[in-house]
Every structure is written in C-alpha cells, then in structure tokens.
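In keeping with the milestone schedule agreed at the kick-off meeting, the structural modelling team has produced records for the first pair of proteins. Each record is given below as a sequence line and a structure-token line. The laboratory manager (R.T.) confirmed that both were archived under the project's standard naming scheme.
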Amino acid sequence: MTDVEKMLAVSLLLSLLSGTGVFLLGVREYRIKPNVFNFVTELVLALITGLTAYFFARQQGLDEIVIYLAVLVASNNWRELSTVFKERLIAAINGVLGSKGGSGQ
C-alpha cells in the first residue's frame, strides 16, 4: 500500500468516525431521530465533505497532519460548510446572470 493510499484510508476512517459522532450527538440532543436512514445519511455526508477536504488539502500541498485536521473539521461540520458553499454558489450565479444585462434597464 502506497503512502497516498494509506492517507486516503485514514481520511476515510476519520470521516466515518466523525459521521458516527455527529449522528450520536444529534440523537443525544434530540435533533436526529435514531434510525438507520439518518445514520447512513450522516455517514455519507461526512464522507463526501471529508473526502472533499482531503483532495483539496492534497492539491494545496499541505502536510499530512494538516490534511487529517481538514478532514476532521470538514466531516464534523458538513452542515455549516454546505451552507457557506451554497451561499457562495448562489452569489456567483447571481453575479454571472447579473453581468449579462438581464435587468432590462
């Protein structure tokens, strides 16, 4: 197994661990109903954001420990990150559409 494969495997495990933690905390705080569908949803979303952070951090050339930190932070905070991403995407789309002269004035 190469170093890259090992880092990817560790990042996957960290993401799954974070997703499990977010689910259990949500159940404890009565935000999430304790069922399999919600558990799998948390795991999938944690994996998506964790892997996104992994590939972004790798592309930036960050150290291994910083990559793992980015994976943990992203997979633990996917709700906040998705909200920020959505707001920036909407602003970018509005900027593109607004620059086309669509206001009719």
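The second protein of the pair:
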Amino acid sequence: MEKSLSYISISHKTASVTQREVFHIPKEEKKDLVARLCETFPDISGLLLLVTCNRTEIYFESLTTPAVAVRNFLVCIKSSSSDVEISRLFKSSDTTEKTVRHLLEVSSGLASSVIGDVEIVHQIKKAYHFSIELNLQGSLLERAMQTVFKSHKRISNETLFRDGTTSMAYKALKVINHVYDKALVKEKRILFIGAGDIVIQLFKYNSKFNFKNIYVSNRTEEKAVVLAKRHGAKVLGWDTVLRNDFQDFDIIIGAASSCANLVKNIPTAGMDLVLLIDLAVPCNINKDLSRNENVLLYDLDTISMDLEETKEKRMAAIGKVGDIIGEELLVYTEWLQKAPLRAFLAEYKILVNQKVVDYFETDLEEYDLKTVKTVTDRVIRRVKRRTSPSIPLEEIDAVIAEQVSFL
C-alpha cells in the first residue's frame, strides 16, 4: 500500500476570527498535540503543523489515516461542541496532488487574506523546521517542501507578485495613519502588546511611518527590553497590562499569543478616540469595547477588509503565478508516479551490487569498493533506459562484464 499526503485546514476563507481562534494551537502546545496525533494514528510518518493568525492546517503523510479522522481528532480536543457545523469550517483532501496544490497556493500567497503575502512562506519554513526536529519530514512532505521553495523562488524572480508590502503588521500601522490626522498622529501614545513575530514586524515597518512614542510590553520582560532598546521604544510592565492600566494610551495593538481577552477595560475619560487593533489569535481585546463611542476596534478580519489594496500588477501576475504552480505541481506528480520504480531500483541495485562483487571475486584478484560502485551505477543506468523495468538475472553477468571492459 502506498502512502498519501493529506491535509485539513481552517482559515479566514472558511471561518471567522472567533471560530478560528478555537482551533489556534499555541507554541507551547504544538509538541504535545503532534505526539498525541502520532500516538492516535501510528501510520503517520510525516506531519507539518501550520499555525498563523489566519489559519490552522495539518498536513500529514500516512498509509491509511483519512483527513476526516484527523479533523475529528482536532475538533474533539479543541472544541467543547461536536456540532456538525464546526466540521464544515474545515477544508480537507486525501489526494496527494490536491494537498500539494493547496500547500503551493497557501505558500505563494494566493490563498492569503491579503493577496501575495510574503510572510506565509517564512511561517511554512519555520513549521517545516519543527517537523524536522521531530523527525516527521516524511518523503512525500519533504519533496512537497522542495516544490514550495522552488515555486517561491520562481514567483519572486519571474513575476511582480511579490512587489510591495502587504503584511498584517504593515496594514495595522497604516490604519493609524488612516484614523488620525497627519499633523497629530506623531504625538499619539502607542502600545505594542507582545514580543513575537508580529511585534517584530511592527517595529520593522515603523521605519516607514516613523511613529515616535511607542511602548512595548510582554510577559517575558527581557524580550520587551531587547526590542525597546533596538528600536528606541519604552517598556511598559506586564503587571500594568494585566491591570488594564492603559491611561493616556491612544493606540493599543494586541499581538500576544495565548492571551485571550487580555484587554477588557479602556479608560476613555478625556480621550477623543482610542484605537484598538487586535492581531492576535486568540483575540487579545474584548470585542465589547467597540460599543464605547470613543473606541474604534479593528480585528484581523476587519483590517483585511478595510485595507485591502490589491495592486493591479499583483492581480495581473495571478495568472502567471497559477502557471508556475501548475508547472511545479506537474513535476511533483511525475516524481510521485515514479515512486514504485524508485523503490524497485533501490532493491534491484542491492542485487546488482552483490552480483558485481561476485564477478570481481571470481574473475579478478583485486578490486576496490569505488570500482564496484562505478560498475553498479552503470548497470542501473542501463536499466533505467530500458522499456522493461529490469534485466533478466541470467543477462546481468554479461552486462557487468561489458561495463567492466569500459573501465
């Protein structure tokens, strides 16, 4: 029985932020989840766990485990409800080609909430490194990742699809410019909550906006201190955040992992407008705060919807990106179809190698392993050129003698 590569996915295309955050898997829970998955489904030999602010996806290589079983497993451990409607929030496939196509569309940015997002391929690369650490790269998955990286390089080199910046962090900073008067925005007091990838991106893109009065707070204060020193910001104690003591902050951007409902109270007395931007999953900011007339709240869904700036050159490049994905998927499929031949040749090569050794031991007094390998490889190349998959055993000695004569 041959292995197949399957996937399950819940994303912004199938579910709201509130629905997605139920299935968000914090960093500290990933290893345990993968261990439980592999224990429950022992035929899984490769696995990629992709968790971003917009999607939770599991790609897995197995002999018999169907995607629906992995989906039900995730629903069971992450949701208190077994409602059939929850299952409908997921996309899935048990076909290797369809799974690889989905992975290519995700990694390229075609499936992102902002078309052409470049951060996603780095998140996939990080997820794959995690798979390698757990020795779960698998052969089908490993080849799929090679296809992802080759496609990414081609899209960057052959199209305009990567031009411009479209990350959520950049969009969040642009919201600030949209909301506040240009003359006053530089004076606004801004708080970044968290110190992970999103906050690092916020500081990175702030070089384009030049907001000056920035504070950063994080559970591990050392990380906040490092970021503050590096970017000329100030540190706000985590205890202050837990107390919701946000006096005089005009703008709060939540990006802390595993901190649901962290911001529950905002002092608005004397404030014209408080802007809250929630980039976290689960959400850091209580949505009820948006009922206050002095509060403006953006979450991941609204920030994508309100600030979608799809450039014409990106839209024009979509067709070319699709062509590249199709071409690389075809290469993968051809490789997949040759898997039985590769397995046969691997076993056949062992047989040929032993026949070569026997030939040298019988007919020659001296030989070395390098010569044995050279002759074996030449015989195998002859096999690959034949229409039939092997040379009859009685003919191998003649082929070996012929190849030795060419040395």
